Amino acid sequence: MLEALFAGFETALTFTNLLFIFAGITLGIIIGVIPGLGSVTAMAVLIPITFYMSPLAAIAFLVGVNKGGTSGGAVPAILLNSPGTPESAASALDGYPMAQKGQAHRAMKFALYSSVTGDTISDILLILLVVPFSAIALQFGPLEFTSVLLFAFVLLSGIAGKSLIKGLISISLGVFLSTIGLDPVESTQRMTFDEVHLYDGFSLAAIAIGALALASVIEQLFDLWRSGGESFIAVQLKYAQSKSNLSAKEFFGYWKTIGRSALIGSMVGMLPGLGVTLAAFLSYGATRRASSDPDSFGRGNPEGIIATEAANSAVVGSNLIPTIALGIPGNMAAALLLGAFIIHGIVPGPFMLTMHGDLVYALFASMILANGIHLIVGRVGIPVWGLVSRTPKSIILPPVVVLCIVGVYLPGQSLFDVSVMLAFAGLGLVMRRTGFSLVCLVIGFLLGGMFETSLRQALLLYKTDVSVLLESPIALAFLCLVIVILGRSAFKSKK
C-alpha cells in the first residue's frame, strides 16, 4: 500500500493537478462563505467544467471544492451569525460570541485549523480502511448488492428527510428517472417517447444543477424580492480590531477535543445518509458533556468551534470509503463525486481499486496535498473571506444562475439539457416546499442503474427461490435491517 501511495504522490505532484486543487479549494471557500450556498451547490454547478479535465484533475478539483466549501461555511457563522451551510450552524454558537468580543480572527483561525486537522485524520483513515472494505465487497454477488442498496435506500430515506415515506417516494422517483432511455440489456426504448435526446437518459448535470443549485438560488432570489432587500448585522467594528494570534502550541493543547471530534465525524461519514450536520452537532454535544466547564459553551468557548469544524470536515474523507468500496455515496457531496467518477468512465465499487488503483492512490495523495494547500489558502485569505461574506446576495446570485445555464449547455451544447435543468429546478422548488428530500431524489437517480442491474441479475440467477437468502448471511442481514427500519418507522408513526 505504501508503494502505491508513494506512486500516487508522484502522479499527483504535477503543476496542473496542484493548480486545479488550489482553484477548487479557493472557489469552495468563496462559495462557502456566501450564506445559503455551500459546497454541494458549488460542486453541482462546477461538475460540467470537469468534462474537459483528466479524471484525476477533475476529481481532485471537486474534492478541493468540497473541502473548501465545508470549512468556508464557518466564516459567515462567526462574523454574521448566519451559517453559510447547515453543518456550520453549531460553529455560530461559540464563534459569533467570540467575534462580538473582538476575537473574530482568532475564531476563524480555530475553525480553519480544526477543519484541516479533522480532514487530514479522516483522509488517513480513508487510506487505511478502503482496502479492507473493498476486500469484503469483492465477496458480494448480485443478491448481496441488491440487499445493500435496498438498505441504503431505506436508511437514506429515514435520515435525509423528516418523513420516511416522503424519503422513499423521492428515492423511488430517482430510481424511476434512471430507467428512462435505452434498456441496457435489450436496447429497447423505455419512456423516451421517440425523443432522441432521451435515448441516453437524463443528464446527471442537468438534474443535479437544476434540483440542487438552481432551485436553491431561485428560492433565495424570491426571498430577497419578498423581503425587499437584505441587511447584514455583522461585527464589522470589532472585526478590524480582532487580529489576535493563535499559536500551534495553544491549538494542539485541545488535542483531546480535536481527536474526539475527528473520530466522530469519520464514523458518521462511513455510514451512508447520516450527513455532515449530524456529525457537527453530535461532536458539539459530546465535547460539551466532556468539558469541565459546560456552561461556557455558547459564550465563546473555542472548543465549540473546534468540535464542530473538526467533525464536519472529517466527514469529507471518510464518506469516500463506502463510495469507493461499495459505490454507495455517504452524503450528497459524495453522490456528486460518484457522478463525476461515472462521467469520466470510472465505476466506483469493489473492482475500482483493481481496475483503477493508480488513479485511486493518486486521488488519496491529492487529498493529502489539498489539506496543505487548504491551510495556506485559508490562512492567507482570512482578511478577505470576511468581505466576501458581507457581499449582498443580490450581487452574487444572478451570476450563479448564468453559470448554471452555461454549465449545463456547454458539455453537449444542448438546449434540451437546459430545459431539463429548468424543469428539475421547478420540481426542486416544489419538493423543498412540500418536505420531499432532494438528496434522496439525486441519490436514487445515481444508484438506480446499479440497483436495476443487480436486481435483474439476481432474478435471472435465482428466479423466485427465496431459500438462497439462507445461503447468503450478508444479504439476509441487510434485508433484516431493512425490515427493522421500516417496522420502527411504522411503530413511531402509530405513536
Protein architecture, described:
The chain is an all-alpha fold and 495 residues long. It has one domain. Helices cover 74% and strands 1% of the residues. The protein is built from 24 helices and 2 strands. It has helices spanning 2-12, 15-32, 39-46, 55-72, 74-79, 89-100, 104-137, 142-160, 164-178, 204-227, 236-239, 248-252, 255-270, 276-290, 302-318, 320-326, 332-343, 352-355, 357-380, 382-389, 393-412, 415-434, 438-462, 473-494; strands at 181-182, 189-190. The chain has a two-stranded antiparallel ribbon with strand order 1-2. The radius of gyration is 22 Å and the shape is globular.
Task: List its salient traits.
mainly alpha, 24 helices, 1% strand
Total number of helices: 24
How many structural domains in the coordinates? 1
Topology as a string of helices (H) and strands (E): HHHHHHHHHEEHHHHHHHHHHHHHHH
Determine the strand fraction and express it as a percent band: under 5%
Share of residues in helices: over 70%
What is the average per-residue confidence, as pLDDT, rounded to a whole number?
80
